[in-house]
Specification:
Layout lengths: L1 H28 L8 H4 L11 H13 L2 H13 L1 H28 L6 H8 L2 H32 L1 H22 L5 H21 L1 H4 L6 H17 L6 H24 L1 H5 L20 H8 L7 H7 L12 H26 L7 H13 L6 H34 L6 H17 L1 E3 L5 E3 H5 L3 H22 L6 H24 L5 H30 L1
Antiparallel strand pairs: 1-2
Helix pairs in contact: 1-5, 1-16, 3-12, 3-15, 3-16, 3-18, 4-5, 4-16, 4-17, 5-15, 5-16, 5-21, 6-7, 6-21, 7-8, 7-11, 7-18, 7-19, 7-21, 8-9, 8-12, 8-18, 9-12, 9-18, 11-18, 11-19, 12-16, 12-17, 12-18, 14-22, 15-21, 16-17, 17-18, 18-19, 21-22, 21-23, 22-23
């Protein structure tokens, strides 16, 4: 019964939150379809292109997800118990992540489709903008490096997934031309292409001879993906980004449907579980990680994640057709991710809390749930793994495009998209292909040296984005901004505390990591001080 109860509570709560709190935010932001969005006012056929709301929801949902709503909740539930993880996912998605994501989309939409850096520049100051963009660009380069590694390994490890992923990229190119150039309706194009995506999964599983044609080494896949992300960054969004993310979103929706129905039939899957995962393991379990602040860093995308604000104020705001769509895409997209996180918690409960690779746990869980529909477990697992790969690939190519936007904005649009993309990719390649040494003197990729700080850095971006949003609401909209400022206080205090622990814990083994964490604390306090000065100056007028 546990899985069933958890899913029903989450689903009902998220639906209620969408109409109640999402409606409240829509009123605060005064969404009005009579206002022209940047997709129309700045249309250029490359970055600024209005999209059907379902297409854009597919892009946004797939981009913000990554592996975060799966890895984080599974790791947190395994460490502290399923109850703290579930509570943060449900409360965080409605009051933290939904506000953050929808706010970033709307704020960017009202500032010409530019990033939160531009919002911060106008309402806090130009120096704050530079600090924010430098930090977020470096964070995005790290994301590109890590997701390049993850995607290449996933594709190299599973030929069926590699085949299916390659096929739906090809199908996406055809889909883009069908909708935008050949004037085939979205409904007809969807009816044709989505079944072909699932057919690619089935062929990959049952025709290994075909799938094995896509069996390459991790290094080969890295080079293939480097070419792919460069093209994804510079091509018009309607050619590859929009259609690929839209088609891949159907894999994600299928996983949500399979996982949701599977959890409703939870007793069937819990029958053979002998060791149950405790609801609560304690504030400081055996590994010594305190529930606060670390649970709120471990669970990012399932409740609130700074990367979401970069997507919302990067690609999404440039493609939104009408202002009212911001609620469905920004707030609704976050709640969908909350559902994914809930299902992820369900999959680890089914294992009895046994340790393991979170991605493998999720894929195996979806495979078991799929048997409810008469789908063979192997096919269900392939769908789950391909959905995961879709998350990772989408976050990879979106992060590359976002890094290009950030770089161009830093130089006020004076750098072309080709140069900006190449520079971001080159820095990511340095992190992937250059070597450093760990505490034991063993060679490791450079990105692994600084990756432990990413979780805190990502949540710091969320706090800073909420700060920029709050200042805009207070100074620009002339309204109270408690809905943004209270979550901001919590995220900033939590993140700075986590970074403080990192400074102390890693000082003996990795001074690079400790110094990096200390610099992030200084950055957060500096930007908070800049915002205080901006608000204080406004009050003094």
């Amino acid at each position: 019964m546990l899985l069933t109860v958890l899913f029903i509570i989450a689903a009902v709560w998220f639906i209620f939150g969408y109409y109640w709190y999402g409606g409240y935010l829509a009123n605060v932001f005064e969404l009005d379809d009579n206002n022209e969005t940047p997709a129309h006012s700045k249309f250029d056929g490359v970055d600024y292109v209005p999209a059907h709301p379902m297409v854009l929801l597919g892009h946004h949902f797939a981009s913000i997800a990554g592996a975060g709503p799966i890895v984080g909740p599974i790791a947190a539930a395994s460490t502290w118990g399923w109850l703290p993880a579930f509570l943060w996912v449900t409360i965080g998605s409605v009051f933290f992540g939904g506000v953050h994501d929808m706010g970033a989309v709307v704020a960017s939409m009202r500032h010409g489709g530019l990033s939160m850096g531009e919002v911060i520049k106008e309402w806090v100051g130009p120096r704050a903008k530079k600090l924010f963009l430098i930090f977020t660009w470096l964070a995005l380069v790290l994301v590109i490096a890590v997701f390049l590694e993850l995607a290449a390994k996933t594709l190299a490890d599973n030929a069926a997934v590699a085949f299916a992923a390659s096929m739906y990229i090809l199908l996406a190119l055809i889909f883009g031309y069908m909708v935008y150039k050949w004037n085939v309706s979205l409904g007809v194009s969807t009816l044709i292409m989505v079944p072909l995506v699932f057919l690619a999964v089935i062929v990959g599983v049952y025709v290994p001879g075909v799938a094995n044609l896509f069996k390459f080494s991790v290094t080969t896949w890295k080079w293939i993906l480097l070419v792919y992300i460069f093209l994804a960054s510079i091509l018009p969004v309607w050619v590859l980004l929009q259609p690929r993310d839209y088609l891949s979103s159907w894999l994600l929706y299928a996983s949500v449907l399979i996982g949701g129905v599977g959890m409703l039939f939870g007793p069937k899957f819990m029958a053979g579980v002998t060791n149950t995962l405790p609801a609560y393991k304690g504030f400081a379990p055996a590994d010594g990680k305190y529930l606060w602040p670390f649970l709120f860093i471990t669970i990012a995308c399932g409740a609130i994640s700074g990367f979401h604000s970069l997507v919302g104020s990067g690609t999404t705001s440039k493609q939104i057709d009408k202002e009212s769509h911001a609620r469905m895409i920004g707030y609704g997209g976050m709640l969908l991710e909350g559902i994914v996180a809930t299902i992820a918690i369900g999959t680890v409960i089914m294992t009895g809390g046994k340790a393991g690779n979170p991605l493998a746990i999720f894929g195996a869980g979806i495979g078991k749930f799929a048997t409810i529909f008469g789908i063979p477990q192997s096919v269900g697992t392939a769908i789950g793994l391909l959905a995961l790969n879709s998350f990772i690939l989408t976050s990879l190519d979106t992060a590359t495009r976002l890094a290009r936007y950030q770089f161009q904005e830093f130089f006020n649009g004076k750098v072309d998209r080709y140069t900006a993309s190449i520079i971001g990719i080159l820095f990511a390649m340095i992190l992937v292909f250059s070597k450093a040494t760990d505490a034991a003197g063993n060679p490791i990729p450079m990105w692994k040296v600084i990756w432990p700080v990413f979780g805190s850095a990502n949540q710091l971006v969320a706090g800073l984005a909420l700060l920029g949003l709050g200042v805009w609401v207070i100074r620009g909209l002339k309204k109270k901004a408690g809905f943004a400022m209270y979550p901001m206080y919590f995220m900033m205090i939590t993140t700075i505390t986590a970074l403080g622990f990192l400074v102390v814990d890693k000082w003996q083994t990795s001074k690079v990591l400790s110094i990096t964490a200390a610099l992030l604390i200084i950055l957060a306090l500096w930007l908070a001080y800049e915002a205080y000065l901006a608000l204080h100056a406004k009050k003094a007028e």
